[in-house]
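Hi! If you just cloned this repository, the fastest way to understand the data is to look at a raw example. We've pasted two of them here, unedited. The first protein comes first, obviously.
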Amino acid sequence: MFTLLGRLAYRGRWFVLVGTILFLAVSVLTGLSVFDKLKSGGFEDPEQESARAAAILAERFDAGSPDLVLLVSADEDVDSPGAARSGRQLTKRLVAEPGVEQVVSYWNPPDSGGGDPGLRSADGDKALVLVRLAGGEEQADLVSERLQADYGGQVGDLVVQIGGPGVGLGETIGEDLARAESIAIPITLVLLLLVFAGLVAALLPLMVGAIAILGTFLALYLVTLATDVSIFSINLTTALGLGLAIDYSLLVVSRFREELAKGVDTQAAVALTLQTAGRTVAFSAITVAVSLSALLIFPLYFLRSFAYSGIAVVAIAAGAALLTLPALLAVLGPRVNRFAVGRKHSASASARGFWHSLSHAVMRRPVLTGLPVVVLLVSLAVPFLGVSFSLPDDRDLPPTSEARIVGDSVRDEFGGGAARSFPVVLPDATPEQTTALALRISALAEVNRVDTSTGSFAEGSKVAEPGPSAPRFGDETGAYLEVVSDVEPVSPAGEDLVGQIRALDAGAPFLVSGAAADLVDSKESIFGLVPLALLIIAAATFVLLFLMTGSVLIPLKAIVLNVLSLGATFGAMVWVFQDGNGADLLNFTPTGTLNTTIPILMFCVAFGLSMDYEVFLLSRIKEEHDRTGDTTAAVAIGLQKSGRIMTAAAGVLAVTFIAFATSQVTFIKLFGVGLTIAILMDATLVRGVLVPAFMRLAGEANWWAPPWLQRVHQRFGLSEAPPQSPPARVSD
């Protein structure tokens, strides 16, 4: 099949190249508009209790968590005549703004119940104004941008700083992306020049990367027409697009140059390249795409967005490597070696060298060399046993960010109030049931006060009759409670308080909303589906590697070694980002937690990339074993022929990810650093030491399968060894 693809790519090379140019033109003209449609949310499960409660609060009570938090500072005291006057004017203007659903201000007028004292800072020089926006997320984002532009800065006698969920993330991500690209692309070009020792060959992977990235922008634009897509998926698109394009191009171009060095003509070299390296690229792309597809089972569109972008970028990168790149190689022919840089490139793959010597050194003492690496990886994984999770918030932004300044001030200078409330919804309840639940919640140790339609409650007793604002807490059939506490919502204490509230008996169904409930429900949504995601990845990986090798043991070995490597990566991430070791060096603020979504996201991406290198290595080992029947020699020669490419690919891919260590968003920094460690660890310790050690110990058992599976492989396996002589030349 791949030989035929190579012949078709050669004969139709000009049609393929013209088609690629048209595809790029459409991608640029249409795909770049995707940035206007991406969203910064997606961390909540819309079917969970907290999301359903938030929907009821918005639809029935015109209430809910604020979209914007305005930190208002006065020169002296927020109760001074000038500050109070400016505060009331600010509140009145915000209420009249189009797209604003609700404003809760320290300066609320008396006829609405007056201002919440919890919205005044402890020293009295700051106050809060909480704004909830109307409409869906896309409309709310537009209104939010307008309000930030209109109200930030000096307003009368007050200074206004604006924060809130998602505020500042979009702009920061855009800056980070530009910075990462400005770092990664020049370094990548230098590395490619060193690897290929020629300018023409070095530019080919960048061309494939541009096709993959721009094509994925177009694919994401089409996806946004049907569903929500997270802005953070762009980071994966650029890093993975450039990285995989380079991986696949390295494999294809290196094999093409190797075939030319043997003396075959251009057409035969293209056919042989697609037959061998093309098959490897196809297998690699399928394994990476399958790993990323496991993210589709999660209800959070933040995670699903990475599946959309990841699958698209893998498919387009592989398509470009299997069609556009061979067509371009067919046009270039031997000119692919033009404009040599440095030492003359040796296109033929030597049977002897560093990787050959390393593999023999490992295989002479497989236990002595492999066991210390296993112990090291297990030791690195131990900190992951103490992992703690949270949702992203303003602390993921740099300390100088305005949204971060607002968030820090709310945490440090304000007590319990609407900014830290735990809303509780009773969709269908009598006033007596509402009062009963309010009394029970107010008796909890961490609760300061409960406000609802039947009054205010504290320490298990009613402390105030319904005030002017009481009607907003109820409607004809139900009510909601505003539970005020000093507890930080996004924290273990906040999760515990949600659990205590949900455990109470109200005599009527009720739902808990707010940031703490979002965290509890988000963890349940993600971790409840993790076993299924892992099963999907493991099963698909096993099937694909079995079809490639005909072995039962090799796929199991690959899964075990990948899990071992990723466990070490996760442990290192806990030690660094959760415990804060190296926080000053990496310039982030440790919070004692990791983002709930990042570990599963990293696992799917890193597992797929690990299998990428597994396929690179196994394809050469299998090719040599089919030729010689000697496992030890096949491992040594296979590692020698693929080691340089694999290491170069890992190094370049690591550069694209480590560039995200410069990100100002902590969980993007975590994503980049974590994947860099995973890639380098896998391409060196795992592929260079553990794979040869394991395969030496297993010997010919590496290729074992029960008879019935052997028959399955003979019928359905995708094995296509290169012919001993070049295929016959087909005329144009």
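Ok, and the second one:
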Amino acid sequence: MIRQYNIKALLTHWAVLAVDCLIVVISLILAYQLRFNFNVPAVEQPLIFRAVFSLFAIRFIFFIFFRTYAGMIQYTSSEDAQRIFFSITLGTATLGILNFIVAQFQPNYLIPFSILLIDYFISMFLLAAYRIAVKTIYEEVVKSKKPKVNVIIYGADNNGVITKRTLEQDRKKNYDVVAFTDSKLSNQTKNIEGVKVLNIDRDLDKLLATGEADMLIISDSTVKTAVKNKVINACLKYDVKVLTVPPASKWINGELSVNQIRQVRIEELLEREPIRLDKEIIEAQTKGKRILVTGAAGSIGQEIVRQLAKYNPALLICLDQAETPLHELDLELQHDFPNLKYEIVLGDVRVEERMEKVFRLLKPELVYHAAAYKHVPLMENNPSESILTNVLGTKICADLSVKYGVEVFVLVSTDKAVNPTNVMGASKRIAEIYVQSLNKKLVDKMGEMATHFITTRFGNVLGSNGSVIPRFRQQIETGGPITVTDAEITRFFMTIPEACQLVLEAGAMGKGGEIFIFDMGEPVKIIDLAKKMIQLSGLQLDKDIKIEITGLRPGEKLYEELLANAENTIPTHHPKILIAKVREYEFEAACKEIETLISLFDKQNNNAIVSKMKQIVPEYISNNSIYEELDLKLAEK
């Protein structure tokens, strides 16, 4: 097979070289005709043969030297154009020099300079033109044999035009852009490069309904979330595949390629309009400060680090016990924030001696405590570990913050702490109780000089480690089935950047003791999420991928709560941030109960640990859990 391929390639190269040589001869003859207005004098005619022979010899040598024949004509590129340019230019220059030499010995040039100049432009044009013609014909023939893919492009702007041209240049598929559509069109815009422009409200649904379009590509990266959702939902309704173009800033070397056009992710469907932050208040709190982020290698912790890095802190301390993710964060910060002063600390918030050293040597002024265990079923089976990390780890960091004069301590909590039904949610509620009661004690004792403890709660974040979306994506990639615990289960969702931005703003606006909750929008049915992810992957439910109902996991709720209503929340200046009205605890009593709870770790008696948690958090009622029997016993008492 290799030998046959080499022979074929060799024959192709000789054929290209032969055509190039023929063009050289034709070009010179045409140059003579043009020079003498198609009436070559009799005295010049005998010299034509010598000129042809001389030109042919020189051109042949330079064709061989520059390997102008080596490229595949059907894939002509700028490299082939360069070869032709250098070959013809240097060949012509060589003939010019030979003209001067020959003129020293006889009256006639090898080739008259005027004809040589005309030949230069003709041969350059013909050699390039025939290659382009062959490439164009080849592409049309190849494309005609491939099934046509009809495309609608959302974005009737420069990016849309670039997307169209990129698709048309693709050799692997036969794309045909049948329409542009946009929500920002003027009434005068009728077509772009011969392609009709549709009104999104009046025409898009009709076109999709005809089945004429195979896919829609969103090229406008500035499209509003509501409009994007409208377009995507219309496409999903008619089984039209949806792709999206990355922002121009992310194009490779400033150019768009077909490989960069990707499927729309479910996260983009769940996104809301960007949050307007009070950047001045955040910058005033964080700029030039020494800031510690615990759990910095987690999905939330990493994004908090990224957000803080933009505000030029004096030192950003990134602490986590996960070695590999922490190393990856280090590499990211080196690349994205080369001027940032930061410290990567491998450590465990549960080890007081290690944390004491961090606080003593690095002297943080602000602490964002994101370190926590968060997987509900795992914590349900390992309540002692949940207590050690979520409660003891928080207590250690909070106590050290007071000891070393930290200005603000922000606890990153969860909506699962509201009326908890599982160990994880209850452990986070206990952590909230500790820092909130500690704040009350300090304010009563020290006033404004005290460390301000602030708690932030939010629901599921899109794409975070262990969340449902990465799990569904993995199940789709392996052919399914997608597993959903209950057909009625719903969750609130928020993007990681959005959640972390709100954490920073809440931390900046807090006076101490508040539990801030975020407007999470409307809850989403998980089964609907799974169905849309299947559609966005270009697959069909039940035909390509099935959904399997597995039953609620231990401690899992059907519906999450945020206490986000007027009766139990207080509004703030930010419409997406509210303050929860919750029961307050006296520090001494709460601290004593929490220390007793932590001491139960040594006995490793899960029932004793969970019973104590239920005493501290009376609203903690287990659901779908082995600890439901403890609620019955407590009720009997």
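That's it. A detail worth noticing about the second one: Residues 165 and 196 are 15 Å apart (CA to CA).
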